[in-house]
Amino acid sequence: MFNVIIKTAIIYFFVMLAVRLMGKRQASQLQPFDLIIAIMIAEVASTPMDGTGTPITFGLVPIITLLVLHNVIAMVSMKSERVRAFFTGRPSIVIHKGILRQKELKKLDYNLNDLIEQLRAKDVIDIRDVYFAVLETNGELSVMLHPEKRAVQPCDMQLVPPNNGFCYDIILDGKIKPRNLQKLGFSEKALESLLRKTKMKRARQVLIATSDETGSVFLQDYHGNQEAGTLGHG
Known about the structure:
Blueprint: H1 2-22, H2 32-45, H3 57-79, H4 81-88, E1 92-96, E2 99-100, H5 102-108, H6 112-121, E3 130-135, E4 141-145, E5 168-172, E6 175-176, H7 178-184, H8 188-196, E7 206-211, E8 216-221, E9 226-230
Antiparallel strand pairs: 1-2, 1-3, 3-4, 5-6, 5-7, 7-8, 8-9
Helix pairs in contact: 1-2, 1-3, 2-3, 3-4
């Protein structure tokens, strides 16, 4: 029993490392060859755990082989469009300039219920609003609405909104994040100075605090109280 527990723990961390090395795509974003390899890794990983007499190498070696195969395919696919098309396929336009492409839907074995469901997931209720719809190689549907149905953008009104840059968490669960403060160009002293001006006073009383590159800070304590402030560079 102890042998199985040890092998299970080793396989777990090894599989986790393999998945990390495969990249950060979510399951819904996996390409076909990614998904196949992920399924095969899960299958071979269980082999050494079936019995105490099965060597752990029966799981580790296939996982390493699959990981190497995945990385080779990914590298070759980056350099060759033909190889990429073979392993991942090509995007398919299912609605072209407002017209449903029935032949394309049949070729993909993609029915209208699937299409309407994915449109609703994109907050598109009326199919008449769609100008282009593209079924991507990972199964996701990309949608472009007719110009008159698209949300108004600032550029449509000749407006240039301010760019506040990226927003970082600077306090999480009562602990200051020095690296994120440094990325924003602010110091811990500036944050501590701001905290003294609030009812929270100290970082340990803060559940979460975020700031953008302008120094605009949002804070919330453990009791749900919220405050705002601005970091200084001094």
